[in-house]
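Holo prediction. Input below; ligand is NAP.
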Amino acid sequence: MRPDHEVVVIGAGFAGIGASIRLTDAGIDDHVLLEEGDDVGGTWYWNQYPGVAVDIPSFSYQFSFERRTDWSRVYASGKELYAYARECAEKYRVRERIRFGVRVEAAAFDDDAAVWRLQTGGGNEVTARFVIGATGVFSQPKPPDIPGLERFGGVTVHTARWDPELDLAGKRVAIIGTGASAVQVIPAIAPVVEHLTVFQRTPIWCLPKPDRPIPGLARRLMRLPLGDLAGRLASQAFVEATFPLPLHFGAVLPFSKLAERSGRAHLRQQVRDPVLRKKLTPAYAVGCKRPGFHNRYLATFNRSNVELETDPIERITKTGIRTKEGTLHRAEALILATGFRLFDDANPPFVVRGAGGVDLASWWDENRLQAYEGVSVPGFPNFFTVLGPYGYNGASYFTLIETQTRHILRVLRRARKQGATRVEVRREANERYFRSMLARRGTQIVWQDSCSLANSYYFDKHGDVPFRPSPTLETIWRSARFDLDDYRFEDVAA
Ligand code: NAP
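Structure of the complex:
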């Protein structure tokens, strides 16, 4: 059987765009992208809440081969990143390969034909020899499990499904959650709403963000030969020192203590009321969960129209939110900054059945999350993920995208060369990789005792934290050098 396409990429965020560019470079022209939304951009398409911006410097949060020297700020806004995604999709002719408004509901490997059958709703099917999952991790909004949510009489909106028409000016607003999204949306809307009640369950460490407009001189310097490369290298070094290294060596080096000192100083500087400050101070060490980065988040709680509620929510009523102690906070609009479904069957966000009909979510449930180099799972031939377990090391997602697509393209090139129709990672290679990941996690920051107080989404139900415990250079080196014989290449469709 000849499949519809040699490769189908699922998702047209930066991961899908990056994969498509590399496929085209490799001469794999017979590929399409399936995208649920009606435009490119992924995260930056779906998350258009006020204040949305990146937390990694823009010089690192971009493709290495498509560097912009005209970012307006050190940390680009969501709008700028969305525009960058559209530009990349146009320039590299990715857009013309995308089928928008197509949601993949299920993927099943047809053993006999060695092809993937993708169900896309309405009884439609797309077949592909190879599938690249590029659906990200923060794609499935998680509404809170609070009684009465559906009875709320005002407007309810999740940060990741923001309605650009929503006008909060002069309204009484409630927001549930104080994660990285809330840290950005709260200071952005506080000046325009009449009243804002913030429902905090677990305080977040909020660290200062070295964000500012990029001065004209710096932009001119970056346009000089090697200027932007120098900026990029400095930015990559900064990211490495502030994300992957603390994450992976935080148990043996004092990153957490230093960050906590900075977090406490930031709190003291921004919040004068000691009672309020105490409520905003986390009981867990920095690094147990993703911190926020903002220069105005904490100070926003000094405003007379902003109230921090830490009493647990009992229920949501037609007119507002009632807490356990019985206070009813009236609201006309309710913002759910409650994050995303990450584990179980949420990633990838469709049912995946591999060889012999084995369900990926159940396989992970029984065997723990694992994927060879974060890309491939034994028993799931011809299927690759850009953001699989133990793939992401905490650096810029762009570094991850380029690293993992390098891995995938090496495999696909070999498959082409050998005329292989079925490519599967060997079980022993996967086990070796998984064991090495587990053996190295002891130095990670997340294993501090106080993390049990953090309510951190980093941990799955087995207690695993599927970050890749590796410095970025090692991940890059591995993607270029891993042994291709760790995969089995066969021609079974002949
Ligand atoms: P999140 O970090 O998962 O935060 C969700 C918040 O909602 C938490 O404060 C959580 O409290 C609270 N919550 C959830 N269910 C609740 C309930 N039933 N009752 C009360 N509170 C509840 O989600 P997020 O803020 O959307 O961020 C997710 C991730 O996206 C981030 O960690 C980050 O990786 C990424 N992100 C990045 C950026 C950026 O780069 N600029 C911006 C936004 C998001 P608990 O802590 O108690 O669970």
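The longest helix spans residues 397-418. That is the main takeaway for now.
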